[in-house]
Amino acid sequence: MKYPLLHELFDNICEKYPSRIAIEDAQQRISYQELQQYSLQLAACLMGTGTERETVVATLLPAGRELAASALALFRTGRVYMPLDARIPVARLHKMLTSTGCEIIIADTSVLDAIQRMLKEAGTCLRYVMVLGQGEPQLFTVNAARELTAAVAITGHQEPSATEPSDSCYIFFTSGTTGEGKPILGSHRGLSQFIHWEIREFNLDETSRVSQLAQITFDASLRDMFVPLCTGGTLCIPGQDIKFQMPALIRWLKHNSISMVHCVPSLFRMLIKELEQQGAHAGNHFPDLKYILMAGEMLYAKDVMAWRSLCGSSTELVNMYGTSETTMAKTFHRIAAVPEDPGEALHVGQPIDQAFVAIMNGNRLCRIGEIGEIFILSHYISKGYYRQPDKTAACFVPNPLEGSTVKVAHRTGDLGRYRKDRSIEVLGRQDDQVKVNGIRVELQELENIILETEGITQVVLKAMENAEKAVELACYYTGTPQDPGKLRKRLEEKISGSVMPVCFMHLKEFQLSLNGKVDKAALPRPTHVKAAETKADDAKTPAESEMEEIWKEVFKIAQVGRNVSFFSIGGTSLKAIRIISQIYKRFEVLLTINDLFAHPTIAALTALTEKGRKKEYAAIQPLGKQDTYELSGVQKRIWAIDQFSDNGALYNVPEIYLFEGTLQRESFERAIHSLVERHEILRTTFELVNGEPRQRIHDADSWNFSLDFHDYSIYETPLENAIALSADASLKTFDLEKGPMIRAILVRLSERSHVFIFVTHHIISDAWSQEVIARDVLAFYDAYTTGRKPVLEPLKIQYKDFAAWQNKKLMQRLDHHRSFWIEQFVDGVTPMKLPLDYPRPQQQTFNAKETTFRLEESTSKSLRALAQRHTASGFNLVLSLVNLLLYKYTDQQDIVIGSPVADRGHADTDNQVGVYFNTLPLRTRFCGEDTFGQLLDNVKQLTLKAFEHIDYPFENILEDINLDIDKQRNPLFDVGLTYISFLNIGGEEEAGDQQEGDAAIRVKGIYPGFKFIKSDLWIKAVENGNEPFLFVFSYNTDLFRPAFATKLIDDFRNLAALVAERPDATLSSLVEKAREAEAAASVQKQQQVRDRNLEVLKNFRVGTR
User: Fold this and answer.
1) Are residues 516 and 567 in the same domain?
2) Quick check: helix, strand or coil at residue 853?
3) Residue 739 region, left (φ>0) first, then alpha (ψ -120 to 50), else beta?
4) Which residues have CB under 8 Å from 599's CB, separation 6+?
5) What's 324's DSSP letter?
6) How many CB atoms within 10 Å of residue 702?
7) Carrier domain: which residues (predicted)?
8) How does residue 397 score in pLDDT terms, banded at 50, 70 and 90?
9) Which CATH number covers residue 474?
């Protein structure tokens, strides 16, 4: 079917309603006739450039008359509309322009300086800049000197040739153009078909008043813009300050009689929350609002229930689904009844006209209820990724269904299933840069700006921490000395005050390093006040004493001085989370990890806390009795993997303990049953309820669980037999639906020696939980053997309560976290190019072996000192070393490492058993000329920011970044890192003594080893006080030989020693040095082999004489 193109439809509307208002904002009201005339004027200007059809034209304009007229002008002249955000850094803008071959920019006067600076610094393929303002549009040409010169005035009117439906008409970047994402190329045909469908489906006419809430860099902004402009309605544009202030937005929606809103569910929830906080009573709060169309996120039954309880049902709510690659939405659900379960996600309905959604399992269409991958089929999807044929071929694939006229399908990477009525249910998804005041800053970019100052011949910026540990910029320059005040004032015209250097230091010359570059380490440091060191027993205020109690509890130490650094006593991000959680609970002030890292002493942190704004401590509320309960985000992912994995033991978590002493078996068995009674999660099973996984909690009295007992004292090697039994127990699969999810075995080795094997499924526990379990069991055992009452504090909540609280919190705080992680992976991920010994299997395997080793004591000591100098945690240090190791093996300078971390930011979770972890995909970008110290600082800033967004589940990240599914490997990283700062895993772990007398036992942990691995390579680092670092390297045996692990460990040892000796050396020089040492060792080894062979030959000759 052929649809009129949008500019043609718009022109028809202009003939019908010339005086109606087309665009309305706080400053102006533009009629259709005025908008049409303006767009024709811009079209004539574009035709006068002589550029070809489908030339890419970027707009750097806010929403309003100029942007709408520009889009119409580009459509009618056959050019490609590419809206960009004028606020993005110049370097990033330059990259977007050059990657798309953009020849023309349409902008207003506010961004002219940025364009001219870009031309001067880098140049582009840019030929023209059209500047819009109050008067006539001005056209500038870019001359050979990369300067803008006024073009000859356009005279006459050159008619553009007819635009074809198949012609390209827009480019949107998958990242929203704030990063370097994939540029999606859309066609007139696809865009026109969707706008026509929406107008027809919802019977829209000239009375429509549609809000423009979508960012202009998202394709949804075209829907906001052209639905009203193609019906004779009005496009209503709120001010930028109104969009993000819910009270103002609510007033604006009412006052402007908005009839249709397109938004994401997050904004919808924010509106509901604001109405609730205003104490709004049930009623029609938006009498003119007919439709709210939502897409981009999951919409839940509770969202619709909350809206209808406040606003009634006069506004129709619509849930939509699609991808930017398929030209906006391709399914819709006009919501009538909603499920009874508030936490149930709503389905996305049926396909729109001329679209089909195929849910595939391999090469066949899924049955009703069967989970598969979503493919979208339509003649009206986009053309793919502009100038990226490989990425296009990966996502725009041959139609998997036979007999269809549609040749190409978009492979979304989303999982879904058909409901009984064939509606669709979406289930989810299979640099020289610093940060100042939360703003990412390109140092080179700022240096170039400062270098423009007359008299300055060379500039170096250096990031450093002030007395409060906040990052500041210091500017060093050579040439003519400058008055700092006057220089700062001149730079304020080009540099934001938030990233302005705090000091300007004139030097006669810069000292150079051996590689001929400026030696930043030799630059003089601006003076800062140094806090006096104090002893642990110094006087403290009452608030500081309370803070000290928190630190003592978290660090498990007897005392700590008010000016002792958090990092000097082994501070980690995990400990920071626990401290912040306790501060919130005791002081009712909510801080961030950045706050603690910037104020790393009791004195500084207490002062910050006392200045903080009070926020009443919000405990997690227990749920009422229910038949079943919702799963947490990480539980859902583990459940889904368990359903589709052939390896049922992949998520088994074994723990082995050796008990030495007289064990009272009855008391111990009673302690185990008390543990199960105390923690509901240990008697939980998982089942499907209405197609959704739910957890069911069983009564302790009726729960079918017992402690197995084996007597191995009859064997010659009872301990070895017990460890073999533990291996069998850890490989035995759990039935998630029938349960139990735990396996407890007590093995008698002798009268005074036992082994306790405790295996859990990861869906109910994590590493922290194992510590809680061990502590609780020993506490119960101690009570029962001494006749005392257990002294454990009653649990205020259970895991099911946390799961509900977390899900609710995620729905309220989604956008902030999502934006961070999307920005991290907006340009895709390059797989790790480790040298494999065997071809990678078609399906990912998980078989593993491991090797344990320690670093030398002197190396460990030097590395700890290095970390403290950079106020970096042990985790930051190890992560930096692993990045360096991988750089040596792959030459890659953009590396993603997955790290599971405890997500127990709320104080109520401290003593809980459950799966309270999240996997953080930590992406480090660096270059070979960085020093290791710079890499460490880079990693430190990365992890600080990542921990601020720890609450966003890993599975949500995978869903949002829309990676291509590769069944051969982990979806986002090939190397994992676990960092532990409280265990001693050198084969045995001391867990302490338990009471005295006949029932006295000594407990040691036996490290069971891991049989499975969830990536190609996994590194576990263990830091135990001042002992040398312990490492466990696990590798996939289907990819690597044991010799690879041996070489990997040797290289890691060498690199760690080199870093300890030369922390200011560049990464490339460290790698080169390690390779030289490797080559020398190889030569020496070959010589030793030759010497031995000569000796054998000599002895042979002597013996034969």
Assistant:
1) no
2) strand
3) left
4) 468, 469, 605, 607, 608
5) G
6) 7
7) 538-613
8) very high
9) 3.30.300.30
